[in-house]
Amino acid sequence: MHADKQICGRNPDSQYVDLAVEVFSMLADATRVRIILALSNHSELSVNHLADVVGKAPAAVSQHLAKLRLARIVTARQDGTRAFYTLADEHASRLVTEAIFQAEHSLGGVPRHHHAVADPTAGEPVAAGEPHVAAGASEPREPVEEARA
Fold it and tell me: pLDDT of 69-125, one tens digit each?
């Protein structure tokens, strides 16, 4: 009946709002955020390596990975008795990066990410004072300010 209509997921009445809340609740855990950051920096990691990186017991990390896998945020590959994990796509990494940028704003002053010469979300240089747009965003963020000595 409505197969020809595109449904915008960014409207307040979108069918995806409740699913987005579930994604945020999945990311509302420091260990899971650390796991996503670790996987963002490596293409694939074993449970034991992830446990070392995030400073938690392998059993605890394994339970977090199981939840992330059920939420389709990570994927697993078996190699014998070892499981290796990778991010399913770039979206969780981008959400965590933006959340960290937002957290930097809560500290007051000029956030660290505004001191960077390059925009880490786009991979391209951004001149100081020039607005930058996060990947997937429609509006520029506030201008990048020059670092003050």
Answer: 999 999 999 999 999 999 999 999 999 999 999 998 888 878 888 875 555 555 544
Residue 91: count other Cβ atoms within 10 Å of its Cβ. 13
CA distance 55 to 53: 6
Nearest to 23 by CA among 80, 131, 99, 82: 99
Q: Tell me the angle at which helices 47-54 and 30-41 cross, rounded to the nearest 10 degrees.
A: 120
DSSP letters of 43-92? S-EEHHHHHHHHTS-HHHHHHHHHHHHHTTSEEEEEETTEEEEEESSSHH
Identify the H or E element spanning 124. strand 124-125
d(CA 65, CA 85): 8
DSSP assigned state of 5? S
27 near 95, Cβ under 8 Å? yes
Residues 2-21: tens digit of each pLDDT = 555 566 788 888 889 999 99
For the entire predicted model, the pTM comes to 0.71
